[in-house]
């Protein structure tokens, strides 16, 4: 099969002919990738921001496709199923999984680009090729554990399914699961990229009274207005803290979602929340970057700092719920898809996302 392979951080991905070993152990599934979305985390992987994955590896982690083979003992999916492919391939057995916290599965933290049994099924000239973000979806086909897959009805467009795997569940989950926004709350979302736009929609679905979108792009802010933002702040022209204070009568918002992944905007988010409010850190930043805070901002005012990993999601619960929101029209995902390219143009897609020229590009193998 063909796959886009990263050999060195920061260098172009190379389209390689990869040997794919079929599913052989219980729970293993072969999926034909039909669409894979390009996420900011893929850019971080490309740049070397997540060094835990051995090189070479296949990037990509939000995709959808069709099951083309299953190993004996597989129970969640069968051949012909349309599935959402996620990187959240939990073991289902550890302490966190038993509590329903699949995103914190201890097995995920030690897999580093391999399958559940510690092996890889992709090889180049006899040498192993690993899976970036434990998924590696920039390819024609892949082997996944069934726990990473969620079946979906065939009438759900495959590109919609691709974005559900990470973008949508992370953004909406930040509002619905991590923050648990309530009706009447006021929120700010810093960063109107794909995940930020989904955070806007999650807050709207939860019944937020005021949703302030903050970005430096007029086009992205216009899209945020289309999907539910009540107020827009162009950070390239306006001092953000003052603008949010004015919009909230000097009180601040209940929740500020930072969806950029930059220390400066993380620190800025703390200036936007009210006393007793919470900052939710959603943006994926490269490892080892640090933010600075004055502890008294938290201890003397009751402000809170919340980490949000993958929208605090349980994919078996959340993805079917998101599909219901999409069917009802409460979740509008078409504005997020701003480009479509063949897999062979993956380097162009990564460069465009890094430059802020696209919201989401869909790659078609």
Short description:
This protein has 365 residues and is of the alpha/beta class. The protein has helices spanning 40-47, 95-98, 158-179, 194-206, 218-227, 240-247, 263-270, 295-299, 315-328, 346-354; strands at 2-5, 14-17, 19-20, 28-37, 57-58, 62-70, 82-85, 122-124, 127-128, 130-131, 141-145, 149-152, 186-190, 210-215, 231-234, 253-258, 273-281, 304-307, 337-342, 360-364. The radius of gyration is 20 Å and the shape is globular.
Detailed description of the structure:
This protein has 365 residues and is of the alpha/beta class. Helix content is 28%, strand content 26%. The protein is built from 10 helices and 20 strands. The strands form 5 sheets. Strands 4, 6, 7, 11, 12, 19 and 20 form a 7-stranded mixed β-sheet that branches. Helix 4 links the parallel strand 13 and strand 14. The longest helix has 22 residues. The N and C termini lie close together (10 Å). The model has no long low-confidence stretch (mean pLDDT 94).
Kindly, what is the distance between the CA atoms of the first and last residues, rounded to a whole number of angstroms?
Answer: 10 Å
Strand content: 25-35%
State mean pLDDT (0 to 100 scale): 94
Q: Helicity level, as a percent range?
A: 25-40%
Which sequence of SSEs, written as H and E, runs from N to C? EEEEHEEEHEEEEEHEHEHEHEHEHEHEHE
Uncertain runs: none
Give the number of DSSP strands: 20
Rg over alpha carbons? 20 Å
Helix segment count? 10
Class from secondary-structure proportions: alpha/beta
How can the largest sheet be summarized?
7 strands, mixed
Principal-axes shape call: globular
